[in-house]
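Record type: monomer structure entry
Structure origin: computed from sequence
Chain ID: A
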Amino acid sequence: MQFTKEYFQTHKFAFEMLALFCYLGINATINATTELMEDAREVSASFQSWEPFVWEFSSALATLIIFPAIAWFMRKYPWDWQTKKRSAGRFIVAAISYAVIHICLMVAMRELVYLFTESDYQFSSGLGQFLFEFLYELRKDLWSFAFFVALIAIYRYMISQWLGDAQSISNHSVSENDSQKSKSLANILLVKKLGKEFLIKTSNIEWVEACGNYVNLHIGDQIYPMRITLSEFMVKSRRYGLVRVHKSFAVNINWVHFIEPLVSGDGEIVMQSGEKIRLSRRYKVDFETLVTHH
């Protein structure tokens, strides 16, 4: 199996979760064994050998559960230097929310595990200790949130530089939010890739391939990824002659050379470049209707 950009795009979420799972698992194991080694220095053990693993892995599992919400938040509400105060307020609220949810999940998991043992887990024995323990965990979680935000931002930047990321632009000066809200793709797309910026005409897109949360825009022998689902892309690109022909493909009818019917009832679209795209029976009627009225 060859590792390609297209393969990574298709399995991107799986790779990300695997990396996160490995990081949290290794970190939890190191922390748990560190606590055991430090406790071994004492004359008598203050806890049983399995307890540090429950503490650390409950924290790791809680983080694993919440982490996708952090990624979603950063995509939904990216940092905006033009509205620094609003962005800072949002991130502070998000950080505190993460900390509170993480603490609640972590404690709940520990209580559940301890139910099946002869030991008793107490987060605190009084109000004073509760406030101390809560602030102790809150301090750590706020720092963890800041670390995860930085990690996600750096990772996304590196991935966008490696894969490339096509975005709509127009001849007029528009904000990023206005561009995202547009119901149609602009005539020109800007692709940032490996430190360079490419301008491509939307009408020159020959065919489109879905790859996970991306679509790959094919123009000649060049491929330009765009972070958007194929369904969303089709809604925004209809006026450019692009039509869906398969659950994973769409073609520009202006670049179609001919169509070859298949015995199965499907079809095969041959592009002017010689590329062959599958025409599914599910989309065949819509495709033929658009071709007839084009």
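Annotation 1: The chain has eight helices and eleven strands.
Annotation 2: The helical segments are 5-10, 12-40, 51-76, 84-115, 127-163, 176-181, 230-237, 281-293.
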